[in-house]
Amino acid sequence: MSRKFLGSGIIFALWIVFIILLKTFDVAPIGPEDTSVGFATVNGAIHNMLGFNNTWYTISKLFGYVSILGAVLMALYGVYMIVRKRHIMKVDHALLATYVLYFAVIVIYILFEVVIINYRPVIMPGEEHVEASFPSSHTMLGMVFNGSFFLLIQRYVKDRKMCRILSIVTGVLLVASVLSRLFSGVHWFTDILGGVWISTVLLLAYDGALDEVDKRRRRKKRKKKKEAASAPEQNNG
After folding, report:
1. Sign of CA dihedral 76, 67, 121, 58
2. From CA 218, how far away is CA 40, in angstroms rounded?
3. Cα angle value 7/101/146 (rounded, 5°)
4. Considering the domain boundaries, does residue 27 fall inside one?
5. Overall number of domains in the chain
6. Which of 37, 105, 147, 212 is the most exposed place for a label (fewest CB within 10 A)?
7. CA-to-CA distance for 97 and 209, rounded, in angstroms?
8. In a domain? residue 25
9. E strands along 106-215, which residues?
10. Among 74, 121, 81, which residue's Cα sits nearest to residue 100?
11. In this model, does residue 216 exceed pLDDT 90?
12. Digit-coded pLDDT (tens) for 140-149
């Protein structure tokens, strides 16, 4: 088994332990409408320090839209390639791995809208009640979408200068997505941490999947070279 897959599995197991602790350790009703949250001392202290910041909240939404736009463009490109190739399995397997990653994000997002671990530390403008807050979906989207772009850029952009520029852009967007959401104050600190944590699990598994795609591509190239080298010998025979 790939070390990246193994690492992803271990980190995922620790994430599950973290969720259990969120429901059992230092739980106190410090949220709006007397909603409780684990690690209440840490969460309460950080939220009291940051408070709700509408400017950072607006900025975090903009970063979220940029990340989603990138994912939508990637999805549309995939649809184009499927139509062009006329069969989904003829599409580059790195692209297919990317869609599996995106699907996993959607499943996790829906799951934690149903299985609620934490509620927000604030009632959002225009809402009457608190909403689900764990893990921070903006954090997860920003990390996974930009992180996947970063990994693809490292593998497939051959121009070194362009690769460096695009890597910096995606890296900045990734970090900004996390920090802007933290500073906005619409999540508990552990919600942000949970989003970073599960994103790391997904990206590590995705990186391992891309390694497998690269290995398969190299095997195909070696096979073609052997076939090309054996062809003249067969003709001479």
Report:
1. negative
2. 51
3. 90
4. no
5. 1
6. 212
7. 7
8. no
9. none
10. 74
11. no
12. 999 999 999 8
Q: Please report, for residues 88, 212, 235, the alpha-carbon distance to residue 224 in angstroms, rounded to integers and kept in the order given.
A: 23, 19, 17
Parent domain of 181? 3-20+52-119+126-217
Helix axes 189-236, 3-22, angle to 10 degrees: 160
For the chain, give the longest Cα–Cα distance.
Answer: 85
Distance in angstroms (rounded) separating the CA atoms of residues 122 and 51: 9
pLDDT in tens, 21-55: 999 999 999 999 999 999 999 999 999 999 999 99
Report how far residue 179's alpha carbon sits from residue 176's, in angstroms, rounded to the nearest whole number. Answer: 5
* 77 against 108, higher pLDDT: 108
Straight-line distance from the first to the last Cα atom of the chain, in angstroms, rounded to the nearest whole number = 43
Q: Left, alpha or beta for 94 (phi > 0: left; psi -120 to 50: alpha)?
A: alpha
Name the DSSP letter for residue 34.
G
Query: In angstroms, rounded to a whole number, what is the distance separating the alpha carbons of residues 204 and 12?
Result: 10
Q: Is the peptide bond before 135 cis (omega within 30 degrees of 0)?
A: yes
What ranges in the chain are assigned the alpha helix state H?
Answer: 3-22, 40-50, 54-85, 93-114, 137-156, 160-184, 189-236
**Burial track 2-32 (b if 16+ CB lie within 10 A, e otherwise):** eebbebbeebbeebeebbeebeeeeeeebbe
Q: What are phi and psi of 49, to 5 degrees?
A: -75, -40
Strand partners, 174: none
Residue 16, in any domain of the structure: yes
Instruction: Please state, in angstroms and rounded to a whole number, the distance separating the CA atoms of residues 151 and 216.
Output: 17
Relative orientation angle of helices 189-236 and 40-50, to the nearest 10 degrees: 100
